[in-house]
Amino acid sequence: MLHFIKTLSLSFFLLGTISVCAQHEAYEVPTEQQIADTTFVNLKDYSTDFVYDMKYATEDNFLKAKVYDCAECLLRLKTVKALVAANKDFIKKGYKIKLYDCYRPLSIQKKMWAIVSNPNYVADPKKGSIHNRGGAVDISLVDADGKELDMGTSFDFFGPEAGHNYTKFSKNILSNRKFLKKIMIQNGFNSFDSEWWHYNLKTGLKDAVSNQKWNCN
Ligand SMILES: [Zn+2]
Question: Active site: which residues (predicted)?
Answer without folding.
Answer: 195
